[in-house]
Amino acid sequence: MKQLSDTFWNIRGVHRVAGVLDIGTQMSLVRRDDGRFVVIDGCPLDDAQRDALLALTGNGERVAAVVHVHPFHTLHVEAMQRLFPGATLHGTARHRRLAPSLPWSATPVEAWGEDHPLAELFDLSVPGGVAFVCADERVHVASVLVRHRRDGIVHVDDTLNVLAAPGLLRGLLPQSSLRMHPLLARALKPEAGAADAYAAWARTLASRWADTRIVCAAHSALRRFPEGGFADEVEAALERVSRALDRHRVRYG
Question: Residue 216, SS3?
Fold first, then answer.
């Protein structure tokens, strides 16, 4: 469990592809002004991580809410509910569909407006122009991006990526700058204007969240930014997918 500020912690978990390659996953923990906590997502916890998390949160009793923000990150939803049974539970429509017996709050996270239940802590963003849940369930492009307003820290699953070498190579090879999801072209809605809507979303994100200083990216790594670095890297990431966006425009208008 890595403390990134006096109110924000990030926990990295193991997630293996084909039972071999660990691409990692994550959850985050934020302390509110009243001393209670909000958990973002869930991940597998080893004994040391679980003990540290429970010690920090008064055996879990000071966790006020758990919010799951990626529709395809579902493996640890029930485990988080068992760990924090007294917390208000928020999730996407897909979480609610796959685990209907859990005590979900009223509105799916992707439908929240600016006055959402955690607005005192977080800015949220959902990418435009793409399907939030693709028919091809291997395509995990969209999610709800969460920005802790006080500390300028973004928690994001899949929508933005930071490529890092696996295992022992991680300390030897440099990580990448921010990247858009590699399957973006398959997630764009098959309609005119979808490519422009995605580009407009990315540029708005770069502008509105320009003072972001850390991104916690699932399946990869943390990335720290100098002043203005987040905006520059989002703009550069958008440029890298420009050909995919142009192909979509040619096909759909």
Answer: strand
Residues 238, 181 contacting (CB under 8 angstroms): no
Burial 9-30 (b: 16+ CB within 10 A, else e): bbbbbebeeeeeeeebbbbbbb
Percent pLDDT > 90 in the chain is 77
User: What is the distance between the alpha carbons of residues 253 and 9, in angstroms, rounded to a whole number?
Assistant: 44
Question: Per the domain annotation, does 170 fall within a domain?
Answer: yes
- Gyration radius of the chain over CA positions: 18
Residue 167 pLDDT exceeds 60: no
Give the sign of the dihedral formed by CA 77, CA 16, CA 171, CA 48: positive
- Position 18 scores a pLDDT of 45
CATH code where residue 171 lies: 3.60.15.10
Q: Considering only CA atoms, which of 120, 89, 92 is closest in space to residue 105?
A: 89
pTM of the model as a whole: 0.91
Print the domain residue range for 89: 2-109+120-252
What is the count of structural domains for the chain? 1
Give the integer Cα–Cα distance in Å for 252 and 174.
Answer: 38
* Cα distance between residue 217 and residue 140, in whole Å: 14
215 neighbors 223 (Cβ within 8 angstroms):
yes
Higher pLDDT, 129 or 20: 129
Whether pLDDT at 209 is above 70: yes
